[in-house]
Structures are given as structure tokens and as C-alpha cells.
Amino acid sequence: MKRPAGGTSARGTVAGGAVGLLVAASLLGPALVGGSVSAQVGLPFEAPSSAHLLGTDVVGRDVLTRLAHGGLPVVALALGGTLLASLVGVAVGVAAALSRGRAGELTVRVVDGFGVLPAVLLMLVLATGFPGSDLAVLVAVAVVGVPFSVRVVRAAAQQIAASGYVEVALARGDRRSAVIRRDVLPNIVRPVLADAGLRFSAAVHLTAAAGFLGLGRSAPAPSWGRMVDENAPGVALTVWPFLAPVLALVVLSVSVNILTDRLATILAERS
Amino acid sequence: MTTTERPGPGLHDPVPRSGVEELVRVEGLTIGPSSGPPVVEDVGFEVRRGEAVALVGRSGAGKTTTALALLGHVAPGLAVRSGTVRVVGEDVLAAAVATRLRGRTIAYLGQDPASDLHPTRRLRAQLREAARSEADVGRLLSAVGLPTEPAFQRRYAHQISGGQAQRAAFALVLAGQPDILVLDEPTAGLDAVLTRAIRDLIGELAARHAVVLVSHDRALVDAVATRTVTLGARHPPAWRPPGVGTHSMPAALAPTPAAPVPGTAVPGTAVPDVLSVSGLRAWHGRLPALVGIDLTVPGGGCVAVVGPSGSGKSTLARCIAGIHRGRALATMRLAGAEVPVTGRRAREQRRAVALVPQDSVGALNPRESVRRALLRAAGANLGPHRLASQGGPGHQTDPDALVTELLGQVGLPAGHADRRPGALSGGERQRVSLARALACQPRLLLCDEVTSALDSQTGEQLLELLAGLRTRLGLGVLMITHDLSAARHAEWTLVLADGAIVDQGPPETLRTSGSHPVTQALFGA
User: Fold this and answer.
1) Does 2.102.30.10 match the CATH number of domain B273-524?
2) Does the beta-carbon distance from A171 to B363 stay under 8 Å?
3) Which of B251, B283, B392, B446 is most buried, judged by most C-beta within 10 A?
4) Other CB atoms within 10 A of residue B394 CB
């Protein structure tokens, strides 16, 4: 059921701006802000000054530099994992929707099996397999996303597969690949995009948690999640080394959520 | 089956408010694609509570577009150029207003209402979600003349008949207690008995709500509408394709159009059969759907298959087209060569049969222009095209010329090639669907309810068009239809009931001397 939509478009615009800014900052940050992320430049937990705008962290490294470099693992891994999950989801979902007989149903049941695995547990197990590597986080994000993606894509593709134009195309002997490329894919773009947005939102939570738990690339490498963990003990001395990455994570995940909500509403209204 | 009992007391809710209440006001509404002539031009009308206003006009006059605009919906590819649409005094063209009013104040029932039902939820669950209280479920069902017992409420959408699904969709719409009901072709595709029942239902609804009705069914409009608004009156009459209508085929409204025409064939003569099927048996899962069907379609001939809903007509079409998904057995010859009913067919065998599907909305890919759809269907045949060479001026291999030629064959202007289905009317879509079928250069056209979404004038034009194509191209036509006036164009009619042929003969003979009760019910209703 649809609810009144007053004011959501303004919120959507603000959220969109925030997401754009943060994603751009995390992807481009390492290029824009030079300096070493591991060099000791002062005493631990120095207050913000003109030399170090956000102060120094637990071992006296520049917080601003680390903040600029620390968004990349959060955002890039979330984006990569989501992309991977969507690609697998589209491939499996469309194949399941178009398959005859019980093969499709069976595939979905098997994929559903992955859906019951708790995301963080899965990530921890994978991390023991690839210690100190971002690969574990990437794979965990993708594996967690795939079951939902498959279900959404399959449901959307089944509807298209039952339509008159697909039946006509199959009846006149068009190749399955042509039917998928020209009839199915163009008509499931919207649900796939909306689903990817939701996946991305969940993926950001997971990659931030990975940093906090110390998974992924090992210690000196900055990550917003890890910075929160490292700098929490110094809150009494200076709050910014802790607060800055917290704010970055909160604003990113809240605005991604609002944006995907808004996107889903727009897509639902148009379809 | 569905009964024809009068709607129950559930309809007396909501109680009508103050006497005369203007619920809808449309002024100077013009809607069209970004370039080219508008689909709807300068339409204005108002609807008060207790009224049933019918939007009439030929196919393509913008009836559905206008009806959807009342809900603030404009199809992709179209835009409101000018005018206002007010529902209970609010500007419904604003997205936020439309979202708020839909369902509770104004509700829409589309051309295929059964598709509004959720496929994997029980009727009871769907109605309970939409209704305000538990007790309303039974009242809603009785209001639309459906059984109220728990066993029925526990069914899924696929476990009830098409007519019942249509009524269930009505119940679902009524659950929101809307003031205004917008009904788009509520009786399209229903047989005569169900049509009468739905007509009574609409009459009852109009007394309590305001009803905006889009229909080409003149009897329905006459019976329920308090006022009619004619759309597209300013435009010139429908463009007729060259050669159609002046052709030596039976005239549309001639009293005995079923007489065999010289040059075409009736079963039993020496013309080779395009299609012959014997002993066709088909199943849905374990349920038998067809039990021993024999039929032949001669080249240039037209055979109609009629029967009540659920008699297996669509399954028959799907078996012949080779897209039936269950088990099926038969000996089938297509253009002289034996083909399997299920399983692999060669590409050329598949292209020999062209399906023109039932639902004109879902028949065309909404993201594909007419040109792309046609060229894709023509596919590898982009060599000398048989259709293109019919006209005389040599072989045409130019894609644009082919598209123009195909559109010309079905009486559409070449300018429609760049449109998407959303910018076409129901009748235009059906013609594009036919053109797409012709692009395969088939030997047999399999027409599934091709006239059910069209007004009578457009429907007759389409049938004449088919008749012309039959003689010019030697196409066999197997026409599956509810519409008995469409069946009159056939030389031979088969009556299908419960998966078996119960009666057959020339349509006129069946009308006067059909012996089976189903035949008598169909022709008598």
C-alpha cells in the first residue's frame, strides 16, 4: 500500500547529495589528500590544530589523512560486493525463471540455503581462510547478497517470461539468449536496480563492521570502522579522531538508506 | 461456475453522502507523445455521485489514456500537454495527490482484472488485507456474487475460473471503499452469460459510487451509462488500409458472410491443408486439458474455435504453437511436414505458425519500438520478403521499406514505427501484433481472441484485414474466440467444451441447428 509521500523528495535530494559526496570522497580521497597513513607525526591524541585539522590518533598519526584513505575499503568493497551479488543474481535468477520443469525451483532452494547464514559469522569464517585480505570481506558481502538478489530477479523475470511477447518470440523460434537480451533484461532493469540499492545499503553496514572487527587488510591500513575501534580509548582526551569516522559512517549508511527508499518509491510509482 | 444472482447487501456501503456531489472534473485535457498528434485532445467532462459515465469512441480515441489520467497516471512516452483533472476537488496530476487518492478515493480496474490478484496468496488473505474488518470479506464476496464459504475463500487465483477471478478483482477494488470506480473494458473477453452478470453488478455499483466506464460493448454502455462522453470525435474516421474493404471478401455486415468464397477452401476440398492435427491430447500436470482433438485448416481458410472459458481453447493454441509446457500427444502436420507437439521444432517449422496472442497489453515488449519488434520478427528473412514482393515493385530488402510495408498491410501509418506500445491504443497494438506475426512469413496465423479488446468497428476492420491476408497470401487462420460475430468470418467452426470438440460445422448451421447444449448456450445467450 502506498503512503502519503510529502517531503520525501527533498529528503531524497539531500540524501542523494550526501551519498554522492561521501562516495566520491572515499573513492578519490587517497588521491586528493597526500601524506602517509602510517607515519607518526605527533603525540597520541593531540587536539585539532592547524597542522593536523582533526588531531592525531592513538599512535600519533594524522587523523584527516587516515579519514581520507579509510573510506575506500568501506565503499569500494560494498560497491564491488553488491555488483558481484547483482551479476550472479541476474544470471541465476533469469536462468531459473526461464527454465522448464523443476530445475528453477531447485536452484532457488539451494541458493536460499546461503540466505540463512548470518552475515558476520560468514565473514569471520572467510577471514580465517584469507587472513589480512580484503577478499574475505568482498566474498562475504557478495554471498550474503546473492540469495535475495536471485529471488527478486527470478520473480521479476518470471512475470516477463509469462508475457505474450516472450511467448511469441519463443514460438517463432528466437534463440533463448536473444529473448533474454531483448525482452527479459530491459524489462527487469528497475527491480534489479532497486534491489542493488538495498543490497548496497546492507553491504555498507557489513564492510564498516569488518573494519571495526579488524577483518580485511591488516593493521596500519586505515578504514573508518577500524579508526572507530582504535580511537575509542582516547575520547576523553580528544573526541575528533573517534567522532569523525563515526560521523562519516552514520551519514553514509543513513543517507544510503533514505536514497534507496526514495529510489524504490520512484520506481514503484513509474512502473 | 459463477452465478447470475443479484449482488447482496454488502453493496450498501458506503452510504451515499449529500445529494449531488461532483467527484471528478476534467477540463481541456490534452495528452500526447512529445511529437506528433495528441492521443487525447481537449477532453472535458464531470462525474457526480450516482452517475455512470461511459467514455466511448473508436479504438485509438484515447479512452484508456483518459481513464488513467483520472488516477494521475500517464503512460511512459506520453505527457499531459494542457488541461486539468480534479478528483474530489484535488489536482490528481500531482504525483503526491494521486498516490494519496488511489485505492481509497478513486480505484481502477484494468483490462485484465484477473491479473490484479496475487498469484501466491489465498483470496481470503488478499481480501482481508484490503478490507477494513474480518466481517467485510464475506460481504464483499457476496456483493460481487461469489460464494462466501470458507472452502472458496481458501482458493488461490489460479484455482478459480476467469469469470470468478474478474469478480474477485472487483471485490478487491471495492474493499477500499472508493468513491469513484474507473472500469476499463470490464467485460472484454467474457462470454455472453458472464457479461450479463457483470453488467448487473456495474449497474448496482453506479447507484452508490460514481463509475467511469470505458467500453466498446454498446449493450453494456446502453444498459448502465447515465451519460456518454465521445472521444476522438474531431478526428477523421479510422484510416483504412488500401485494398481492404474493397476486396472481394465477405462484407463486414452482410447477413450471410459465412458463405465460402471462391478461391478459398472449405474442409473436404482439394486445397492442401496448412495444418492438420489428429488425436491431440494434452495435460496440465496430471489434469487432462484436451482429450482427442482433430482439426484441419486449409490454405487460405479460416477455422474458428469457440467455447466457454476454461474449455481448453488457449491450451489448444499453445500446443499448435509448440509452447505448451505440460505433456501433449498428437500427430500434427504443418504445411505438409510432420512436426512434434512438444519438444524441438526446427526454426523454419516454428516460423510457419505465427501466434497473435490474446492480451494486447502484454503482447508487445513495452521497451521496444514498433520498428524493432517488426525487424526482429522478420529476423533472418531480411532477404527478399514475400510480403514486400506482393505489391509488385520488385524485391525489397531495405528494413525501412519492409517496416512500412508491414504496417501498411495492417492499416497503420508508417509514422507509428517509432512509437512504443505505451503510445498505441489497444486496437493499434493488436494490429502491430498482427504485423509482427506476418513478418515471420507464416503459413498459419493462430489468432487468440484478437478482437476481444477492440470496439466493434475496429474489430470488424481487423477481421476484414485477416480475410484479405488469407486470400492474398494463402494464409490459413485458426481463430480462437469468445466473440461469435468474429466466428462468422470462418468457414468452419468447432465448439470446444471440457477439452473436447462437441459440435462442428459452418457457423450459420451451428447457430440454427447446433445440437449440443454448449453450442445452444453460446449461440443463444
Assistant:
1) no
2) no
3) B446
4) 9
Pick from A220-224, B64-68, B395-399 the range whose average pLDDT is largest.
B64-68
Distance from C-alpha of B474 to C-alpha of B395, rounded to nearest angstrom: 19
pLDDT of residue B269: 43
Q: Which domain holds residue A259?
A: 15-29+52-270
Q: What is the pLDDT of residue A88?
A: 93
Q: Are A171 and B368 a contacting pair at CB < 8 A?
A: no
Q: Quote the percentage of chain B above a pLDDT of 70.
A: 82
- Scanning B158-225, the segments in alpha helix (DSSP H) are 162-175, 192-208, 218-224
Residues 95-114 of A with CB under 8 A from B: 100
Residue A8, pLDDT score? 59
Residues of B in contact with A171 (CB under 8 A): 321-323, 350, 353-355
Maximal C-alpha separation, chain B: 72
Q: How many domains does chain A have?
A: 1
| A106 assigned to some structural domain | yes
Highest-pLDDT range among B77-86, B264-273, B387-396: B77-86
A182 shares contact with chain B (CB less than 8 Å): yes
Asked if B432 and B373 touch (Cβ cutoff 8 Å), the reply is: yes
What average pLDDT does range A40-56 have in this prediction? 79
Angle between helices A224-231 and A240-270 in degrees, nearest 10? 150
Neighbours of B142 (CB within 10 A): 18
Say whether B231 sits in a helix, a strand or coil: coil
CATH class of the region B9-230: alpha beta
B211 forms beta bridges with: B52, B181
Q: Which CATH number characterizes residue A130's domain?
A: 1.10.3720.10
3 state SS for B407-444:
HHHCCCCHHHHHCCHHHCCHHHHHHHHHHHHHHCCCCE
**Which string of b and e fits B324-361 if b means at least 16 CB within 10 Å?**
bebebbbebbbbeeebebbeebeeebbbbbbbbbbbbb
Task: Please give the Cα distance from B2 to B165 (Å, whole number).
Answer: 10
Helical H runs in B452-506? 456-473, 484-487
Please identify among residues 198-217 of chain B the ones whose CB lies closer than 8 Å to any CB of chain A.
none
- Residues B360, B426 contacting (CB under 8 angstroms): yes
Q: How far is CA B2 from the centre of its chain?
A: 21
Helix (H, G, I), strand (E, B) or coil at B84: strand
Q: Residue A10 domain-assigned?
A: no
- How many A/B residue pairs have CB atoms within 8 Å? 81
Predicted TM-score (pTM) of this structure: 0.64
Give whole-number Cα distances, A224 to A32, A63, A72, A218, B108, in Å.
Answer: 17, 11, 9, 13, 50
C-alpha cell at B230: 465521445
In this structure, is residue A8 part of a structural domain?
A: no
Helix (H, G, I), strand (E, B) or coil at B199: helix
- The segment(s) of chain B belonging to CATH 3.40.50.300 are 9-230, 273-524
B271-306 b/e (C-beta count within 10 Å ≥ 16 → b)? bebbbbbeebbbbeeeebbbeebebbbbbbbbbbbb
Of the candidates B484, B488, B490, B514, the residue with the CA atom closest to the CA atom of residue B502: B514
A42 located within any domain: no
CA B461 to centroid of chain Cα atoms: 15
ipTM of the complex: 0.72
Backbone angles phi, psi at B450, to 5 degrees: -70, -20
Please give the Cα distance from A112 to A160 (Å, whole number).
22
